[in-house]
Each structure stands twice: as C-alpha cells, then as structure tokens.
Amino acid sequence: MNLALRLVSLVLFIAAWYAGSQLAGPRLLPDPQTVALAIVNEARSGALAFNLGVTLARVAVAFFIAMLIGAAIGLIMGRSRVADRLGDPWLIVLLNLPALVIIVLAYVWAGLTETAAILAVALNKLPIATVTVREGARSLDRALDDMAQVFRMGTWTRMRHVVIPQLAPYLAAAARSGLSLVWKIVLIVELLGRPNGVGFEIGVAFQLFDVTRILAYALAFIAVMLAIETLLVQPLERHVARWRPKPA
Amino acid sequence: MSPAGVQNRLDKDRLEVGIKHKSYRAASGGSLHVLGELAFSLSAGEVAALVGPSGCGKTTLLRILAGLDRDFEGSVKLPAHGTLGMVFQEPRLLPWRTVEQNVRLAAPRATDSALDALFQTLGLTAHRALYPGELSLGLARRVALARAFAVEPDLLLLDEPFVSLDDALAARLREELAELVNRRPITTLLVTHNVDEAIGLADRLLLLSASPARVLAEMPVKRPRTVQAPEELAAMHDEIARRINQAHL
After folding, report:
1. Of all helices (H) and strands (E), which one includes residue A64?
2. Which of A143, A153, A168 sits opposite B92 (nearest CB)?
3. What number is the ipTM of this complex?
4. Distance from B65 to chain A by nearest Cα, in Å?
5. CATH fit for domain A50-240, picks 3.40.50.300, 3.20.190.10, 3.10.20.30, 1.10.3720.10
6. What is the pTM of this model?
C-alpha cells in the first residue's frame, strides 16, 4: 500500500513534468527523457561521478564539523547559564546572518580556497545545530544525572550512556535539517568560488542557458541524498530507537 | 553480623552524620528549614531505618549523604572508601540500556560470577537482556537493587525502595533484600514509611520528628528477629506507630 502510494506520487510527478515541458517548450523545461539521457552522458564521461564525489566530500566534511562543534556548544550552553548568556547574542547574529554574507566574507578573508568554502558552509549550519542541541541539553533528566553521580560514573561513561542517548532525538533532528541545508549551501559555495563540483557545473550550465544540464545534475544529486537518507540516516535512527517499546 | 564483629571494625568504617542546619530557598523568597540538629552514627555493617512523617526531610538527608547536595551546615563522614550504592524512590534506570548493561555501567569492576549470583538471588536471570521499558515496576526495582549491590558499597542508601508495590510483592522483595544484606554485611540506611519494613530489615530504628527534622528516639531491634515472639513484634510495631503519630502532631 505504502509503496503503491509512493509509485503513484512518482508517476504523477513525471506526468506533471512532461506536461510542463510541452507547455513551456524544451528550451525552458526539457522533458524527462532528455534529462535522463543527459545524466547518462555525463555519467559515461565520468564527469558526473567526479563532481558528485567532490560535492559529497564537501558536504560530509562541513556537516561533521558543524555537527560536532555545534552540538558541543549547544550542550555547554544548555547546561550552563553563564555560557548561555554569553553565547546567546553570538548565536542570534550567526542565525540571522544571510548564508551569502558568510560565504562572500569567507572567500574575501581566506581566499578562494577549499578551507574557506568548507568553513563558510559549516558556519552556516553550526548555529542551527547549537540551538537544537541546547534545547535538548536543557531538558536533560536531573534524576539520571544524580544516579550517575552517586555511582561515580566517569565522564566518558556519563557522556556515552547517560547524556547522548537523551540528546539523540535532538541530534537526529539537527542532522536531518542540517544535511539538507548543508548540501544546498555547498552548491552556492561551489558556484561562487570552486572550480569543480555540482554547484560549479550548474553555474556553467546557467551561463550557457543549458536547463537540461542543470536538471541533470540537480536530479542526480537529489538521488544521492535520498540514498543517504534511506540507507544511512533511517537505519541509524532505528538503531538508536531500538529500546523504545514498539507501537502496537 | 555478630555484634562483636561489628564492634571490632575500625572507626574509619563508621558513618558519622552531624548535620546542624539545612534549609532551602523557597521559590517565593524566604527559606524553608528542612533539617535541624541531626546527629547519629552507624557502625560498620549496621542497618538503620529512618522512620518519620512524610515531608520531614528524609530524602533531603539521603541526598546530603549521597553527596548530591553540599549546601548544608555540619559534617558527614562516609565509611572507608565511600563507595555508595543507592536505590532511589523510582528505579532510575537508563531506558536505552539493557538490564545487564544498567548494572555493569554502575559497577564496571563487578565480576561475571558475582553478577550471576546477584541476578539469581533477585530472580532477574531471565531478564538480563531486556530493556527497562519492558519490565514491570517490581522487576525494575529489583534491577535498581541489583545495581546498588553490584558496586559492593561501603554505604547502602535505600529511599523507600518498595513504595507503590503491592503488599505481597513488597514482602518478597524485602526478603530478598534481607538475604543480600545478611550475605555480606553492608552499612545500610533505609528510609521508609512502613514500620514493618523497618522492623524487618533494620538493627536500629531512628525516629525523626516533623520538619525541621531531628532524631526523636533511637530504638534497637532485637536480633535475630526470627526467634522473636509475634506478640513482641506486634508490641514493638504499636509502640513505634504511636511515637510516629506523636511526632506528627
């Protein structure tokens, strides 16, 4: 039933796309076969795999840096009132700074380098991870904390077995929203200052007004992100939630 | 635990409590005087029960002894190494870890054979791989007991460990607890509302007054309990109940 509904949804999408391309003409919106063919051609030449790989690597590095540092800061701010008061204005500034400003400044200050690109993406994602994890850290169970203290659990044990399992839903939420945000920003960063990657290819295609190529790269990358979601994120969530009683 | 053996233990194995004053800041401003002059000591291996009206500060006292609350006047000296085992009013297990992991995380140095014996005594052998969410309250409380005993504590703190269990189950758990305490004497402080529980488990009862709590009376329980006449136990029960009621007024 579920699968059938998903198939219906997919068929409807392709049909709408096809109808749209008939209306708008192939220059503005090429039909699905043309785009599929473009994907195959790019894949044959090896350019698709290379660009996807480069972009994916940037997404991965920026994502992990942002999650790690963002979650750590969020945990500290959620646990300490002083840290919260000190960090909050910074957080508000970072949250409201447009992604484009951070990217442009990073390129101006650090040059058109890989470091600048990844740093800019990580900085965009970091405050969101911090805010989400801070919320989780505020709701940590005092009773379990006391228990860990009475039984003299070490810092690492407490972190791994008492704190992080309580933060897991917040970390998952931050990761979910973070992943989709990060890959969108990575494309912009590539468009503005990198000589390769999906964003760069789309930039080139834009200058040539090559909508087919834009769609080919976008679709290929969405497919990769979908695969990551179903093959990595969802199994991980199931593993983390294995102790919860199953709904009947 | 023979009285002579208990007396021969060194002073360093005693629990010495000398609390002078403890108050909380109330949310409305002002302060709430919870504990008054509260002094007593437990010799090594002795089991004492703290009995008193509800809200008299028993849980506060246990939190101070457990080192969870350091904001008080006075002094507390824990036995020897100060290894604590504690059973809270709720089981306080980590829901995302199995029964066995919960115990092992608190007692990383416990040997397999010691844990096997402990799980055997508490009837938990079949439940080792379950998560706390899959346990009844009675079983969860058993796990909390197992965790407290697994660390081989110098001081065992029990905060109404059998509250909200039905009588039959509470009685069975009480027997299991008595068996564990008899196997290897552990200095134990038991907080309870239940006079029978106090008489059944403790060597000595400490009667607390209403808040701010102080020790109203100390009553030794004759040992071994099993040879006491039922009338004698009943008389003792009545005496304690009467004094608790007095404290309440």
Report:
1. helix A47-79
2. A143
3. 0.84
4. 10
5. 1.10.3720.10
6. 0.80
